[in-house]
Write a structure and sequence with these properties.
Radius of gyration: 18 Å
Strand order of the largest sheet: 4-5-1-6
Order of helices and strands: EEEHHEEHHHEH
Structural class: alpha+beta
Shape: globular
Number of strands: 6
Number of helices: 6
Largest sheet: 4 strands, antiparallel
Length: 186
């Protein structure tokens, strides 16, 4: 018998783009926050990020993503005191190199019924992020560091060159603008 306790009254709609398959080749802007916005990753001083040991783990393991997901390429990345920002590119599965211009051109979006369930690529953004978050947590636990991620993450499909440049600049300049950042917490 199905659980009728909430009868779908308290379901939160997904923040994901419903017409998009998150295994498709594209550039994705990812933000992942720490639980309760705690400053696990370090601190900002003189507009520069200084990593804690947990921040160093998060930094190193981010750069390991392509070793575990060969159809990915990493772009800008920053670990901030209580969150990380990064751009992950999912490549065509059979390509060894994709020109940046190609990645910024979204593929023609087929009808979901036609391609949604085809094996377009073994790694979706949610699988990649889940693996990353798990690896950071496991390493912190192994070293006896207290650490927790926020349950969800934020993503944006980068649709063109201008958006890519704006997001890249935002990531690079994030430490300079920390006091005005929406994730800023003392």
């Amino acid at each position: 018998m199905p659980n009728l306790k909430y009868q779908n009254k308290y379901r939160i709609p997904s923040a994901r783009w419903p017409a998009w398959d998150y295994r498709w080749p594209a550039l994705y802007f990812i933000t992942i926050c720490t639980q309760h916005m705690r400053h696990y990753f370090g601190y900002i001083q003189s507009k520069k990020m200084h990593l804690s040991p947990i921040g160093a783990i998060a930094h190193v393991l981010w750069h390991e993503i392509p070793h575990h997901n060969p159809n990915t390429r990493l772009h800008e990345f920053i670990a901030m005191p209580n969150h990380i920002h990064g751009i992950i590119e999912i490549l065509e599965e059979d390509s060894n190199s994709v020109q940046t211009g190609h990645a910024l051109s979204l593929p023609n979006t087929p009808q979901p019924a036609q391609s949604r369930y085809q094996n377009i690529g073994s790694s979706s953004i949610s699988t990649i992020i889940g693996g990353y978050k798990s690896a950071v947590t496991k390493h912190c636990n192994r070293l006896d560091y207290e650490f927790q991620w926020q349950r969800l993450y934020y993503d944006i499909v980068i649709r063109d060159r201008r958006a890519y440049e704006n997001i890249s600049n935002y990531i690079i300049r994030n430490p300079e603008k920390w006091n005005n950042d929406k994730f800023y917490r003392k």
